[in-house]
User: What shape does this take?
Amino acid sequence: MSKAKRDIVKILRMLLWAVVLLTGASMVLGAMQRKENAPIHDIVINIEPLESGDFLINEEDIPLILEKRFAHPITAFPVGKLDVQRLERVLEEDPFVKSAEAYIDAEDRINIELVQREPVLRVMDNNGLNYYLDKEGNQMPPSEHYAARVRVTTGNLPPYEPGFLEEEDHLLRQVFALNELLREDPFLEALVEQIYINKRGEFILSPKVGRQTILFGRYQKAEEKLSRLKTFYREGLPYKGWQAYSSFDFRYEGQVVCKKR
Assistant: This one.
C-alpha cells in the first residue's frame, strides 16, 4: 500500500473515531437532559427516632413543610430544577429538626434523612410560656404528635433568649445545668420529677414518689448537694420512711434538715 493510501486510511479511521465520540457524547448529553427534565417520582423520608423511640415530627409533615416554602409540591419539580441544598436548609429551620440530608437517586426519587432534636427539659413559667429545651439548649415548641416525657421546670423563670447558656448567672442556664446533672445520674433522674423556682431564685425539687418537697436553694455547690440528696434517699430516709416528713432542706452545707408532718 502506497503512503498516500495509508494516509487516507489513517484519516478515515480518525474521522470514524470522531463520529463515534460525537455520537457517544450526544447520547450522554441527551440522557443527561432527559434526566434533568424528568419529574421527581416520589419522596422517600427516613426520620431517626428519639432515644425513647418516639417522633416529634412525622413523615406526613415533611411534604407540607416543603410545599409551603417552595410554593409547589416537590414532585412537581423536574430533577434538574430542584435545589437540594435549599431543601435541606428549609427542613433544618424547623424547630424539631436538628439536621437534614437529601439526595436524588437513580429512580428520580428524592431521599430525605432527618435527625430530630432531643428535648430534655420542659419549661412552663409564670408568664404562660410553654416550650422545650433540647440537648443544646435550643427552644422547641410542644409537638402535636408527642408529649416528651422529660422533667418540667416551673415558676419564676426569665424569658428564653438565644445564647443564655453563655451567661453564668442566667437563671435559665442554671436550671438547664441542674437538669443535666440529674440526667447524668440514673438514680437522681428517676427521683426528681419537677424543678420549681421561687421568687428568691431558689430551686425546689419535687420527687416522683411521695408528697415531700426538696429545698435545694440557689444553684451553688450543686454537685455536693446532689451527692447529699442521693445518700440521704439511699441510706438515711429508709429508717423513718417518706411519709413521716413534709420537706427536706439541703440549703445548709453538710447537713439535711427534715421537717416532720
Q: What stands out?
A: Residues 3-37 form the longest helix (35 residues). Confidence is low (pLDDT under 50) at residues 24-32. Residues 22 and 94 are 48 Å apart (CA to CA). The chain has three domains: 1-37, 42-116, 119-260.
